[in-house]
Amino acid sequence: MSFDERKKSRVTLLDVARHANVSRATASLVLRKSPLVGSETRSRVEQAMRDLGYVYNIGAARLRVERSQIIGAIVPNLTNPFFAELLSGIEEVIGETGKVVILANSGDKVERQAMLLQRMREHGVDGVILCPAARTAPALSEEIADWGMPVVQVLRHISFDIDYVGADYAAGMRQAVDYLASLGHEKIAFAAHGPVQSAYQERVDGFRDAMLSKGLDPGILIHFPTQLGEIASATHLLFEQATRPTAAICFNHLVALGLSAGLYDRGLTIGRDLSLIGFDDVADEEAIRPKLTSVSTGPVTIGEMAARLLLERIANPDLPPRRVVNDTTLHIRQSCGRPQ
Amino acid sequence: MSFDERKKSRVTLLDVARHANVSRATASLVLRKSPLVGSETRSRVEQAMRDLGYVYNIGAARLRVERSQIIGAIVPNLTNPFFAELLSGIEEVIGETGKVVILANSGDKVERQAMLLQRMREHGVDGVILCPAARTAPALSEEIADWGMPVVQVLRHISFDIDYVGADYAAGMRQAVDYLASLGHEKIAFAAHGPVQSAYQERVDGFRDAMLSKGLDPGILIHFPTQLGEIASATHLLFEQATRPTAAICFNHLVALGLSAGLYDRGLTIGRDLSLIGFDDVADEEAIRPKLTSVSTGPVTIGEMAARLLLERIANPDLPPRRVVNDTTLHIRQSCGRPQ
DNA sequence: CTCATCACTTAGATCGATCTAAAATGTTTC
DNA sequence: GAAACATTTTAGATCGATCTAAGTGATGAG
Question: Which residue is nearest to nucleotide C18 (CA to C1')?
Fold first, then answer.
């Protein structure tokens, strides 16, 4: 490409119009596939676009029309495969509609999240899918309402005034507890992890309720380190409780992975010395040995549902807030046995 | 918020200017932190912005100025944790500069990739970080040059005319082969996977060269299924070779995970019955038991480097094309032993 | 007192699309 | 042949910022 060519600014709709001997307005109609324009004219304009290598300028269009075709997605941690799968579902559905996803990582920090929301507003996103950072103030929902910005909460929620898509964590806990109880377990630990947020609370509460309804003690709640690497070496915490558990339900797949490794390191056999149930069920669970019995929340599906809900919300902003709660399924594999 | 308020269009720079008794031009200067504007005026305008809840409209600005503050990132597979880590590095560096990342998943399909590139052009991205889909025609680089779009290739490359950031796969293979050879292994398999692309080729060639330079037979090359779930059950392929390998080097962490599971299923002990070396070294490698000895390519770092390279390319489009090749490191853990 | 300089400030054009309202063209109908 | 109508096409304003070139005062120099 010559220097001149690079210098020359991009091909505009006006150039196309002139090349096809029509007005800018007509060219614009062709672009938007309007039925108003005659078929002969249409093909002439389309040919001109090809000839000149015309590229639609969405940015310019959106100055007139209130639609940027951009959706924002904010997650607390990109490297967690669970969120990667969520994003994959979001990107899939949004992409199908010709829109585009702006990705951002809040690092579970409230201030960073505020900055990212602001940045997305500046970019004029049509809406945002938000997995709120831990300790996000519920007042954020009022700000969002003031902004008039369509938002869907995923996995975690801070307010009932905003659409929400998540999984039925409580039901998942019940499935896990019921299954372990059916095997004869009575001392079941909950292996928690990470900061407190709604999904955390729902899982803990779900665990407690499920245990109580089986007449079991819901008191064995152990908090493990945040970093995956440190979980394995904290496995001993399981055995320093007043009552030694015979099974553990993990907060998410990271804890399950960590404990699974930690038990191996201590020469213990999963399913015999301790039964283990994972949560979230990302692709790994199937790949680990022994295969992890796990409650699946279906992150890809949740991402897809969130995306669809957001699209509906954008199309119809006056809908009352909705909550979509995805069913969980217990995948029974190899990590649970009868208590010793 | 009342109906009227929602109806009222967004606050514009002109509103701010009027509220602060200055011209639109002055308000714009304040926005861009120009030293030209007086300090009393500046604070008056800033106050007006706060009073009115002004939100900068990047889209409008970019119509005048050639800068959208948007970067595109195209990866072949979002659910692969390796790419999630790559993205995390990209997002981190791009986010620091106040820009924003548009995310897209090519699914390793060439046509889909073409469509995504087109969509990104329509959005006027300042540049794109592209991990080219397998079988991408090298001619794409000419198109990209014609478009005048700053692009950085990551992990895979289709052309020497475009910046590239990757890892020294050949060196990684040498590290792996040398280590296994030092343990006494002579029959080493390469466990391949996925479609052929530059990174694949470099790894295979690297393996071959490393083997030859040790005087070993580089002929045991086995291709495993694409899906993680199917790799484990294809483990038998390892033992149906003319010469039975005593060690295997895996194409990436998915193969390593799959084979590790498959060996377990067959009652074989990793490191004794077969030594295993992984590649890529995502967080999982450390979490699996036995811990996987693995060649680390540092996806987060590569993402960061690619982002930085792209920013430099955007700032200076006339730079000659550059290649950045990240060193690999062999992390020796527990999955290798002496041959039986 | 005039002119140059400095430190700000601003009117108006501009970016590339869309939208409104009206005009041009072709077709029927009476 | 004119009026009524349907079908296409278009001129010009518009969205919200930035940029250019010009316009204020105030101060200092000659």
Answer: A64
pLDDT at A52: 96
Does B229 have pLDDT greater than 90? no
Residue A98: how many CB atoms within 10 A of its CB? 11
Q: How many CB atoms lie within 10 A of CB A314?
A: 16
pLDDT of residue B57: 96
Q: What are the two backbone dihedrals, phi and then psi, of residue A154, each rounded to the nearest 5 degrees?
A: -120, 140
- Shared fold status for B3-56 and B169-298: no
- When CB atoms are compared, the residue of B1, B55, B287 closest to A257 is B287
In this predicted structure, what is the pLDDT of residue B9?
Answer: 64
Q: Looking at the domain A3-56, which fold is it?
A: 434 Repressor (Amino-terminal Domain) (1.10.260)
Give the architecture-level CATH label for domain A169-298.
3-Layer(aba) Sandwich (3.40)
| B35 CA from C4 C1′ (Å) | 23
Contacts of A239 (CB under 8 A, 6+ apart): none
The Cα-based distances of B132 to A31, A255, B129, B259, B322 in angstroms read: 29, 34, 9, 27, 17
Yes or no: say if A191 and A255 are a contact pair by the CB < 8 Å rule: yes
CB A117 within 8 A of CB A97: no
Asked if A228 lies within 8 A of B286 by C-beta distance, the reply is yes
Give kind and range of the element (H or E) at residue A149.
none
Q: What are the domain boundaries of chain B?
A: 3-56, 70-166+299-325, 169-298
Residue-wise pLDDT tens digits, A159-208: 999 999 999 999 999 999 999 999 999 999 999 999 999 999 999 999 99
Q: How far is A34 from chain B, CA to nearest CA, in Å? A: 20
CATH superfamily, region B70-166+299-325:
Response regulator (3.40.50.2300)
Chain A residue with Cα closest to B228:
A287
Q: What is the pLDDT of residue A51?
A: 95
* Token pair 């939100």: residue: B55
> B residues 210-229 near A, CB within 8 Å?
228-229
